[in-house]
Specification:
This protein is mainly alpha-helical. It has one domain. It has a two-stranded antiparallel ribbon. A hairpin with a 2-residue loop joins β1 and β2. It is flat.
């Protein structure tokens, strides 16, 4: 979508700001509810999957462990591996549109 006039862009930026504030509020509320659900599991000493029925909806509540790995220092890795480093390192470039408010 292109904007012919700066005033149109300003209207969109204001709406963008409103949405960001709403999203932040909703994210906080969501995190609080997740914490309360976790506390419910702890209070009931639940260590396994739980299915909760609510009318026609089944909620699945469970925990799992996810393992992830990352490289702390790419330069050290590249120095150790030498020419073979490119086999193990995937590089990509992405253009980012940054919109910030000061």
């Amino acid at each position: 979508m292109s904007y012919a006039f700066e005033s149109d862009l300003i209207v969109k930026l204001r709406r963008y700001d409103e949405l960001n504030k709403t999203l932040a509020t909703l994210t906080k509320e969501k995190d609080l509810i997740r914490k309360q659900i976790s506390q419910w599991r702890e209070l009931n000493k639940i260590k396994h999957e739980v299915l909760i029925m609510d009318e026609n909806v089944t909620w699945n509540i469970d925990t799992y462990t996810r393992n992830s790995s990352s490289v702390i220092d790419f330069n050290t890795l590249i120095n150790k591996l030498g020419d073979e480093a490119s086999v193990f390192i995937k590089k990509s470039e992405t253009e980012i549109l940054k919109i910030s408010k000061k």
